[in-house]
């Protein structure tokens, strides 16, 4: 909410503080210490041949397989197919979740009529819908997108509704005192106050839909994708292909996580600046 207030004169920042702020931020590498140690231990075990089993392949074999998969284009095609399904399911599910959560949060009638059914719907395991989805939509991309949309819808709807209900009552009372219309109340009070909770739902939806992508590709096996790459590696007993798929899945999830956090910080920061 925007309020006119008298700004106090701010003393100039001293040169020492400005020098500290001007220093470039150091990159924290502590988070990569454990992966580096794990890869080094894995490399040492495979090089010493302490584990004589086809279940443990060397990192060099995984790198060689990655080079072959990238060179042939198979890895790029599989990852592109998975990300396309992820994006489609996330957009559909998040949009429906925002609409449903906003309706439940803003309308008391909808909360009383639809709320109990939605609370029951949330308790059903996501993978319990796969038999029904496979019968209705088959085993193709349509079934997978529907499954991913369900995975994205639930957290967005729940956090949007909870975020609106968690807005302090005094904010609403102040808006009524200022004679805000219903649209102004939603735009300038409810939405900015609930935005952190909404972003939490969107962040969880992005992660859940990526995890659901692998589950859908594993259980609804038609088509290409990273999940099918893991299945092929398992069926052919190629642990190098399986480990490559796991690394790609983890790296992609980390990238999605980083992008979502960066977008969240940028939007909230801009909103905070605009409200000052």
Automatic annotation (TrEMBL):
Keywords: Cell membrane, Membrane, Transmembrane, Transmembrane helix, Transport. It is a multi-pass membrane protein. The chain crosses the membrane at residues 32-51, 90-111, 123-139, 145-168, 189-211, 241-260. Its main location: membrane. It comes from the Bacteria. PROSITE patterns: ABC_TM1 (PS50928). GO terms for cellular component: plasma membrane. The keyword Membrane applies. GO terms for biological process: cellular response to sulfur starvation; transmembrane transport. Residues 75-260 form the ABC transmembrane type-1 domain. Belongs to the binding-protein-dependent transport system permease family. This is Sulfonate transport system permease protein. It comes from Paraburkholderia lycopersici.
């Amino acid at each position: 909410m925007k309020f006119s207030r008298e700004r106090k004169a701010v003393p100039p920042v001293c040169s020492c503080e400005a020098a500290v702020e001007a220093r470039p931020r150091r990159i924290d590498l502590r988070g990569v210490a454990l992966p580096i140690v794990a890869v080094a231990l894995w490399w040492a075990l495979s090089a010493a041949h302490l584990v004589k089993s086809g279940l443990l392949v060397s990192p060099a074999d995984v790198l060689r397989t990655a080079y072959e998969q990238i060179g042939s284009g198979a890895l790029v095609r599989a990852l592109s197919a998975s990300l396309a399904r992820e994006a489609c399911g996330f957009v559909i599910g998040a949009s429906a979740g925002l609409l449903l959560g906003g309706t439940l949060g803003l309308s008391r009638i909808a909360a009383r009529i639809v709320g109990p059914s939605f609370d029951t719907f949330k308790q059903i395991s996501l993978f319990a819908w796969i038999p029904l989805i496979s019968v209705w939509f088959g085993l193709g991309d349509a079934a997978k997108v529907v499954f991913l949309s369900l995975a994205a819808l639930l957290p967005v709807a729940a956090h949007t509704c909870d975020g609106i209900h968690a807005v302090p009552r005094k904010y609403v009372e102040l808006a009524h005192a200022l004679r805000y219309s219903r649209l102004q109340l939603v735009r300038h009070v409810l939405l900015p106050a609930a935005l952190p909770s909404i972003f939490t739902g969107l962040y969880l939806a992005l992660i859940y839909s990526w995890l659901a992508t692998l589950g859908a590709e594993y259980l609804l096996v038609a088509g290409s994708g990273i999940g099918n790459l893991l299945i092929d590696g398992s069926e052919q007993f190629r642990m190098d292909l399986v480990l490559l798929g796991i690394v790609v899945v983890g790296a992609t999830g980390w990238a999605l996580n980083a992008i979502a956090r960066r977008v969240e910080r940028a939007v909230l920061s801009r909103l905070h600046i605009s409200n000052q």
